[in-house]
Amino acid sequence: MTVCLENQTIVLSGTCGVEDVEALVNYLEDRSDLSVDISAATSVHTALWQALMVFKPRIIGSTMSSLIASKLLPALKAYIDKDR
Amino acid sequence: MDELIAQFTIEARELVQQASEDLLSLEADPGKRESLESAFRAIHTLKGSAGLFDFGPMQGILHQAEDLLAQAREGQILVGAGLIDPLRAVIEWIDDSIEGIMQTGRLSEVQEMQAPRLRGLLTGEMAEHETSQIAGMLKTIPDWALALHRLVAETDRSPSLIAIRYDPHPECFFNGDDPLETISRLTDLRYLGVSVKVPTPSPQDYDPFRCDLLIEALSAGSLAEAQALFRLIPDQVTLVHLRASVGDPDVAEVQGSPDPLAGRRSTTMRVDPSRIDKLLEIAGELITEKDGLIPLAHEARSQGSGDLARRILSSHFEIERLVGSLYGAVTQARMIPLERTFRRFPRLVRETSAKLGKSLDLIIEGETVEADREIVDSLFEPLLHLVRNCLDHGIEDEAERLRVSKPVRGRIWLSARQRGDQIEIKVADDGRGIDAQRIRTTALERGLISEMQASALPDEEVLQFVFAPGFSTASQVSDLSGRGVGLDAVQSSVKRLGGTLELQSAVETGSSFTIRLPITFSLTQLLVVEVGGERYGIPISDIIETHKVPTCDIQCVRAGRAFILRNRTIPLLHLGELLQMRPSSLASGTSGNLTVLIVRSGEEAVGVVVEAIAERSETLTRPLSRLLQNVPGIAGTALMGDGKVLLVLDMEELAQ
Q1: What is the DSSP letter of B139?
Q2: Of B180, B191, B206, the CB nearest to A49
Q3: Would residue B268 count as lying in a domain?
Q4: How many separate domains does chain B show?
Q5: Are B510 and B394 in contact (CB under 8 A)?
Q6: How many CB atoms lie within 10 A of CB B62?
Q7: CA atoms in the 13 A half-sphere facing the CB of B61
Q8: Exposure letters B530-559 (e unless 16+ CB within 10 A, then b)
Q9: What digits encode the pLDDT tens for the residues B410-464?
Q10: Domain ends where: B137, B160, B184?
Q11: Which of B111, B117, B276, B360 would disulfide-bridge B410, Cβ 3.0–4.6 Å?
């Protein structure tokens, strides 16, 4: 499972492709209070990033990819915080 | 070969041809705006593609050429020889470079050495317009790029930054795009920002598979890297080169899209030909497969279900109609205009005629006629040979032309027209023509005809001997045509494509070669026969009729056999023997009836014994390629419904 619910947290793990976006959106729609943990994800498709930007959950952890961690994540968190 | 290089060479060839055509038309009509625009577009695109690689001076030269054209577009310089000649030199230089690039992936040293000369040619014109050129380069950069630049200006002092604005297509996920992954491939990304275009989509409106993002980034890598990364989606990306401009961001060069011409992007799409071939193959299989419904209908009828049989047959009829139109549509997709081959000639002729010191005009007509891609592509070699033949042997030198009161400039015509389901291509000249009498003498000397035939054959037929293998009347071999490969090579390559080649000629007036070719490799009706346990296809058009001949009616005539059919003696051959099968593998056929196909062999009818007639089949016959193409008696191959390949026989060649 690349998208699953563990201990009241939505966990993304491994390679999260575009096909996983529906599972993520289902969780986010049902439980807007849950956080999303991306620390176990090796790669995350743009569609999933977009879902995170639309639903704006709290994002926990950083990803394996240093570029995403250093450039995208701050931008994403800034975007989410700004709109909150 | 590197896939990108391969793609570049294909594109570059097309663009070079486009540009040289545009220059030709500008030469004829300097006021032709659309040719100027088109030439500019071709050079601009070529520059963009070349920028992905390190081809030394090529990028710079193209940039200069583009500048010249840009000035001409703005009316700053006049369209004339001063503009066209240096541009033509550039185009020809690039054309010459492509082959080397294809083989080595880089610009050859020889080509590189010519670069300064080209630069000189180009700047000779530019020097007078230097001021306007600089003015043209000062363009303001868009606000968004400035805003991005301000974000990093305090911390980042890179000498050069690329501002990127990537607006992914809403449906891009379906194309397999992963925009953030793509942009993260840039080696030196200094800033990355993402935003959702629709402010806050309500959950009902939100479609997770629709991309509504806008991505902005700054990269300290090269512009070429960014262009290479986004080369497949140029319409979604804007690149702005911010050059050493921290203090003065107004001096910058805008590059990449949005191109002012982007709105005119062509509506055609490039498809890998192998995909079309796959479709064609499937359509071919469907055609074979649909015939399986007929025995099914017969079976239903024999079991007393007449109604079911009728329904099966009517559905067979409908499928047949649909498959037919599917096949037609797919063959249509393979059709391209002959232009692709024809437009390689003007330059070739110009160069060759200059080398020979002959002045002549090449007149091209009917280049819009379309034919199957494979046919169009395979035509270049034979046409080249014929055109060279006209240039070398046909057109006289100036002195001789004057002596026989012809215009000094010779003329060569390369023309095509469609006639029914065939195309007719003519390569003609107004040169010295071919003397039928001389051909007759040579044919006699070579023992190709007897003395009696020599005097009986009309001139038109005698002329066709020039296509006989090894036949050459040229007293000296030139390095243009001749040199071993004769007109026989031209004829056999035309024949391989299912066409014919003919020569008409009149002394002093000129010669004309006519190639007739099928437009597509159309469907042929084949009769599948069995012999020696093997199956072969024979085009039904080759078969006059089929007969059961009782063995006792066969008569021995010297070494051969024959039988009487409607008061005519028909020679009888065995297909197995024609195919040189071992006699042991052939059924003896001493008793009962023989199955005989009556086929045409020249003017004669010949009987060919087969062991059995299996079925009729409608299928696509393709010419043999490479290793097999010289096997006599084999016309091509056909793919059957069961995936097996059937050899299609050329009965006329076999029976000779």
Answers
A1: B
A2: B180
A3: no
A4: 5
A5: yes
A6: 24
A7: 25
A8: bbbeeebbbbeebbeebeebeeeebeeeee
A9: 999 999 998 877 889 999 999 988 888 888 888 888 787 888 888 888 888 888 8
A10: B137
A11: B360
Q: Which pLDDT tens digit goes with each residue over B211-242?
A: 888 898 888 888 888 888 887 787 788 888 87
Residues B615-646: tens digit of each pLDDT: 877 777 776 766 666 677 887 888 766 667 88
What's the complex ipTM? 0.90
In 3D space, the residue among B182, B151, B229, B189 whose CA is nearest the CA of residue A66 turns out to be B189
Using alpha carbons only, what angle is made at residue B490 by residues B485 and B493, rounded to the nearest 5 degrees? 115
Report the 3 state secondary structure along B78-107: CCCHHHHHHHHHHHHHHHHHHHHHHHHCCC
Query: What's the length of chain A?
Result: 84
Cite the DSSP H helix spans in B397-500: 398-403, 436-445, 451-456, 459-463, 487-496
- Whether omega for the bond prior to residue B539 falls within 30 degrees of 0, making it cis, is no
Q: Which two tokens stand for residue B235?
A: 């319409």
Distance of CA B520 to the CA centre of its chain: 13
A30: nearest CA partner in chain B:
B203
Q: Which of B177, B184, B208 sits opposite A25 (nearest CB)?
A: B208
**How far is it, in rounded angstroms, from Cα B55 to Cα B112?**
9
Q: Is residue B371 part of a domain?
A: yes
Between CA B379 and CA B345 the distance in angstroms is 12
d(CA B68, CA B87) in angstroms, rounded, equals 9
Domain holding B635, by residue range, is 523-655
Q: How far is A23 from chain B (nearest CA, A)?
A: 10
What are the tokens at B2?
């590197």
Domains contained in chain A, CATH given: 3-83 (3.30.750)
- Joined tokens for residue B535: 């199956």
8 Å CB contact of A53 and B193 = no
Angstrom distance (rounded) from CA B344 to CA B18: 10
Nearest to B209 among A47, A49, A75 (CB): A47
One domain for residues B361 and B472: yes
What gap in Å lies between CA B69 and CA B550, rounded to an integer? 81
Query: Would you list which residues of chain A are within 8 Å, Cβ to Cβ, of chain B?
Result: 18, 21-22, 24-25, 29, 43, 45-47, 49-51, 53-54, 65, 67-68, 71-72, 75-76, 79, 83
**CB atoms A43 and B181 under 8 Å:** yes
In CATH, what number is assigned to the domain containing residue B542? Answer: 2.40.50.180
Tokens (6 digits) for B237: 């990306």
CATH number assigned to the domain comprising residue B15: 1.20.120.160
Query: Distance between the two ends of chain B, CA-based, in angstroms?
Result: 45
Distance CA A68, CA A49 (A): 11
Indicate the SS3 state at residue B209. Answer: coil
Which residues in chain B are closer than 8 Å to A54, comparing Cβ atoms?
A: 196, 200-201, 206
pLDDT digits (tens, 9 = 90+) for B305-333: 889 999 988 898 888 888 888 888 888 88
Instruction: Give per-residue pLDDT as tens, B28-85.
Output: 888 888 889 899 889 988 888 887 788 888 888 998 898 888 888 888 888 888 888 8
